[in-house]
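Handout, section 4.2: multi-component inputs.
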Amino acid sequence: MSSIEKTNIEIAKAPPGIEGAGFFATSLDKAVGIARSNSLWPLPFATSCCGIEFMATMASNYDLARFGSERLSFSPRQADLLMVMGTISKKLAPVLLQVYEQMAEPKWVLSMGACACSGGIFDTYSVLQGIDRIIPVDVYIPGCPPRPEQVLDGIMQIQKLTQSETIRRRDSPEYTAMLNKYGIE
Amino acid sequence: MEQNLISLVENKLKANFADAFVSAEMIAEYPTFIIKKDSIADIVKFLYNDEELQFQYLTTLAGLHYPDNKGEEFGMMYQLHNLPKNYKIRLKIFFSVNDLTVPSITSVFSAANWMERQEFDFFGIQFKGHPNLKRILNMDDMHYHPMRKEYVLEDGTREDKDDKMFGR
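Output:
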């Protein structure tokens, strides 16, 4: 029993709020943000070597499950986080856009590796020069391919974004205008 | 063996397609025959059906572009194989950029279907008689043929690559 007591397990901290005997009050944004950030369902859109690095991130050594993302969603409709990992050719671009459009709000996008961020070494007629030409990206992870530690850092950046997002942000005209810039209705 | 094969095929081609035969040469251990493009489908069919030669396996075909050869800028190479006897030959045709129409060999080899689509996609060679000649690898809305040797390696004016991000 004593060995369990000694383990240093860190659970998500409560957001700032007003505390008293038998109650705790905080804003809904913060409570929802904590829940969202610790239960992200990533959709892996892995097309090449970055996908292999992501598999290492998911496996026991690096264990993405520690951050609440052990459940991968292979259906875009149930996913919160689109992880684009690898070279996206121009012919694949409409597919990626459709996957993004099928995701329900709120949704975040993580672009992993040089190819997804910028086309990488594939400076050529057939490769999309960065996925941000077709969909909005929240976090970029540089590297060719990035190490699993970098992926974990990227996920933690996404968690920070989800925690600080206000409930009504996705209904705002600014958000709609941003999507319209990408041709997404 | 190759020397016998080259004279064997050469004699047969000269006997049956005297007008279409241009030259025969050993290139990289392959007997290579240059012929006129209008007869390519007939010659491939002849080589397929000939009792002695039986070139019934299409190893590959490829488009060629030599922009400096005026009048013969474009070409096609067909590599044929007789598996039982291990005969391997290449056929080449050359033609002008002004007339990129080539007879399709899909009536002889179904495998040529996608290969000819690829050469259409990358070189713009038009295959006459092809059942479904459209792009196969590139986007349908692409308006050029990217493997032609007529593009500079990098266009300095392009805007889809942000120099400040790449230190160039």
